[in-house]
Model the fold of this input.
Amino acid sequence: MDSSAVAPPSHDGHNNSGTTGSDINGSDINGSGGNSSGEVETQQQQPDHRYPVEFRGQGGEYFKIWIVNILLSIATLYIYSAWAKVRNKRYFYGNTFVDNSSFEYHATGGQILKGRIVAIIALLVVGVTGAFFPFIQLVLYVLLFLLIPWIIWRSIIFNARMSSYRNVRYGFTKRVGGLYWSLFKCLLIPVLIWQILQFGGLMIYAAKSGVLQDMISDFSNNLSIETLSTTAFGLIASMAVSAVAIFFLVLPWLHRNLSYFALNGYRFGTAKFSASLSTGKYYAIYIGSIAVAIGLYLLIALPFIVAAFIFKDDASGAIFSEEIQNNLENIMQPGSPYFAVVVIAVIALYLLLLFISLVSAAYLRGKLRNYRYQQTTAGDRVSVQSTVRTWPFARLLFTNLLLLINTLGLAYPWTRVRLARYLAANTMITCRGTLDGFINTEEKRVSSMGDELGEAFDLDIEFGL
Done:
């Protein structure tokens, strides 16, 4: 969980930095609709108060919870993992503080276990059906695939309702149709348009050049099951390749629409969140992350390119000497004096390339987090600022990875705590007036209207998402 999580976490349990933090903005009163004009005017005249987010957890504390969770999950054949998930979330929620008050997570292991049982039964039904009715199994797989957005939506609602700050619960008000539409317009529509244009262009070219008539004649003369299968496979492969290419081209657009759907759906008490996100900004950040990676790769390659150019005609160059070239296989033998040097050089190069990948990832995640927080507001009361910087964030990710490798995964609790602490330290909440005043207002509004949301279908369903 993002340690800045003043809002409910994302459905997959490891909040992405934009959704969680912006949820903090849910502490606003946009759309609360209970203010008189005089009250609004008074709020606008109040000075801003800034509240840093703190994470007070310790790696040693979390290690005890984590190791017990693993052992009990193994001993109970994964059944206890539902309660383990609750313990993990409660630890990170309970150690994330704003204005000396922490967050709370109210779900129970039983609720999460019920959701997992539903998922397991669904997968078992599909698997058993395939043994007797393969076609029906295919239909069921398609239905399960189409249900994924609904599963994600229900999990977002569940985690929102189970999260609270100072006894005021979060919620999620967006309808699932918005999620389906976001996926449809970002994925299926571009693929369909591209296929129509591609197929139409080929047909027009073939018709004008006379190739189409020859193709039809050859196809009809050699019509067979094998010909039909080959043609169908070619069309499906072409569509698949085009779909993958288009997916990467529309990924920033898809990411923006999913973020927009999530951030504009959360509420804190009766206060609704509002986010204004630019598709162009998302593309700029994605392109920037690619440019960072390419630039760093070229920077590393430059010395080797220069050295190769300088020593290309120098037979006495140590690196390109005839002795080494003629004994390249011997160099890689464990007994060779060069073996240790080569191994160290390969490991160093691998770690350097890995670090560059993490720098690019840190740039992408940090910039998107900062932008989403900056653009997300809730009425005129609460906003969130994120100040994640690329190089410190990349160093943190890299050292966390080295800790995991060197300890065979046992340092995982410390890496999570370090990440949570860093994100919290780079998060600040600004509230017009005092946060106490805002919370008290929301408590009164929620109490006066009651909890209008039932608990039907409050299951944290997972399909490995």
User: Anything to note?
Assistant: The mean pLDDT is 79.
